[in-house]
UniProtKB/TrEMBL annotation:
InterPro entries referenced in this protein's UniProt entry, alphabetically: Ribosomal_uL1-like, Ribosomal_uL1/biogenesis, Ribosomal_uL1_3-a/b-sand
Region (Disordered): 36-57
Alphabetic keyword roster: Mitochondrion, Ribonucleoprotein, Ribosomal protein, Transit peptide
Gene3D superfamilies, per the entry: 3.40.50.790
Origin: domain of life: Eukaryota
Protein known as: Large ribosomal subunit protein uL1m
Family: Belongs to the universal ribosomal protein uL1 family.
Keyword Transit peptide attached: yes
Pfam families: Ribosomal_L1
Protein's gene: Mrpl1
One GO CC term on file: ribosome
Compartments where located: Mitochondrion
Length: 243
């Protein structure tokens, strides 16, 4: 039943079988098609190289300063910049038009030049600043390391979330205690070395103002302060206000 349809399954099979005896008696035919294909390949590569050389470098269009119409392509014009008061007014206007939450946060992106004269970059860092006008009622949880009972009582009176000594190390390593910031008095620092790798940049230090004798001042800074982080690209992103 399948014999009459064999040609449909293998088109051109009867022609190849007819030519086969001629191949046995004579010399093997020259495979000109392989050489031709190889030549074509080289030619195509050469053509591509020539086309690449002929391509002209496209010049970047000079940006125009200010559009004259209401509808325009933004990438043809310089990015506008506004004074602080004007920008704040625009944010308030957009909030009214979009019916968004009126107390939403305002964020800022600061691009820092981290290069020094000796061609060394400043490593990324984090710090905390106490703003003169707070825009949020949120307070951070702060742990105070001290073994002095009087200092511990002062820490509790000034809003410390957790107060203790070396007995807290185990709970911190096991993630049983989690707070936003850690401060300490100098006397206990030699006993806190096991926490150095765990806390990393939150490890108490004088450089970050989290190590000292003035417990009320440290608690105010880290409970009410705003933390900002400078990333690898020298960019600082943080919130600064509410609309």
């Amino acid at each position: 039943v399948l014999a009459p349809r064999r040609g449909c399954i293998f088109p051109g099979l009867h022609q190849r079988l007819a030519v086969a005896p001629a191949l046995v008696s004579g010399a093997p035919p020259a495979r000109s098609y392989a050489a031709a294909a190889k030549t074509a390949k080289k030619g195509s590569q050469k053509t591509k190289q020539e086309e690449t050389k002929k391509k002209q470098v496209t010049k970047r269009r000079l940006l125009m300063s200010k559009p004259v119409d209401d509808v325009y392509l933004t990438w043809y014009y310089e990015r506008p910049s506004y004074d602080l008061e004007e920008a704040v007014g625009m944010l308030k206007k957009f909030q009214e038009l979009d019916f968004t939450y009126p107390k939403q946060y305002v964020y800022i992106n600061v691009f820092l030049d981290m290069a020094l004269q000796k061609k060394k970059k400043v490593d990324p860092f984090a710090s905390t600043v106490l703003l003169p006008y707070r825009f949020t009622d949120e307070t951070n949880k702060v742990l105070v390391f001290t073994e002095n009972e009087q200092e511990a009582e002062i820490a509790r009176e000034n809003g410390a979330a957790v107060v203790g000594g070396v007995e807290l190390i185990k709970w911190i390593l096991e993630d049983e205690i989690q707070v936003d910031f850690y401060v300490a008095v100098p006397a206990i620092m030699p006993k806190l070395i096991p926490l150095r790798n765990k806390l990393r940049r939150k490890y108490p230090s004088t450089k970050r103002n989290s190590l000292g004798h003035d417990i009320p001042k440290m608690l105010q800074l880290f409970r009410e302060g705003l933390e900002y982080v400078v990333e690898d690209d020298g960019i600082m992103k943080t919130r600064i206000a509410r609309v």
